[in-house]
Amino acid sequence: xxxxxxxxxxxxxxxxxxxxxxxxxxxxxxxxxxxxxxxxxxxxxxxxxxxxxxxxxxxxxxxxxxxxxxxxxxxxxxxxxxxxxxxxxxxxxxxxxxxxxxxxxxxxxxxxxxxxxxxxxxxxxxxxxxxxxxxxxxxxxxxxxxxxxxxxxxxxxxxxxxxxxxxxxxxxxxxxxxxxxxxxxxxxxxxxxxxxxxxxxxxxxxxxxxxxxxxxxxxxxxxxxxxxxxxxxxxxxxxxxxxxxxxxxxxxxxxxxxxxxxxxxxxxxxxxxxxxxxxxxxxxxxxxxxxxxxxxxxxxxxxxxxxxxxxxxxxxxxxxxxxxxxxxxxxxxxxxxxxxxxxxxxxxxxxxxxxxxxxxxxxxxxxxxxxxxxxxxxxxxxxxxxxxxxxxxxxxxxxxxxxxxxxxxxxxxxxxxxxxxxxxxxxxxxxxxxxxxxxxxxxxxxxxxxxxx
Length: 453
Ligand code: PLP
Known about the structure:
By secondary structure, this protein is an alpha/beta fold.
């Protein structure tokens, strides 16, 4: 490794010279934070300053930083068997697939990849091929929601419903349609939350019918839109979506990339609702992001349709060289053990509720239009005016985030600059956060918002 030591100026210079960052534009005035170490919920940068990571990286370090056990699990596996392709098999993948069934509480077969995007790509191909296998040859289309995010690769980006991430890369993959999400905060006046959620679900059925039932392969959605602004549906919405999918022979793919592994206060986000997905995709919290790993869980009876090898094209013709790497699987198993042993799934709900109730007084603040929670995911929607609900200006949103950072707290925001929705502040700290960590989040954020804003 280059010995940059702790010379932050040199590191920043080299960073700007050689590294292309995700999303964040190049800015000399606002250089990136260069992290050097982390422990628990706290990250230390190259200057020795400490920050509470109120976003768990990118909603992913569920068990917190600095877990020696995870490093050891990967190290031991690397010494024993560092790699073997899953065109054949190995023990850590088998053990993890079994463990995931336990976590899912149902009968699924697991396909491993490396990222959330790839897990969704696999799901789309499985859904299309499944429909072919059962003789439904025209069923190739997908329905997703505006404001939802499903990844950065062409297929998963096609499913994404955020214009700002897409418009420079279009045309994307064909066959992806979008409907509005159940954003109850912005429901029409005079409509109850239940009526509005039913109406939103109905747009899915209407789209299926208008497009031609026999052309529809699957619906994909997060149980709760997280990165798109913490949009929490009413129970009735997902019940109805499930009914519609079943009625029309359309598969239901639930994207648990953020909501999975305790983030929602249950094992998986959809466990908070009555849905039984046909396919579940997962990544991030699966390894708490210590190593890349993702999974596409497919209901057993769907998998059975892939066993027809009569023309040698029955099986799933999809290879992922690194997917299910033995060290990543061994680490994931240990990660799940930590979540279980430390009751972190339950803790997520307790911490989420604590932050949410501490924040509830902020509803009186002139900028706060709505506060929403799903487990340990909290969204605060900032508005210019509480009656019109016009989203607060991006400069305000960014200013609050920067001020929190200057006081040692990292928080996030949703984004769709093109559609004008970039006004939801997000909080998703590690599930292992201590009571003091949570108090720091609450106190710091309140002091910022009640200070100069
Ligand atoms: N799905 C959801 C809901 C996500 O939030 C993300 C990433 O943030 C993805 C999929 C894509 O995951 P990855 O960045 O690992 O490809």
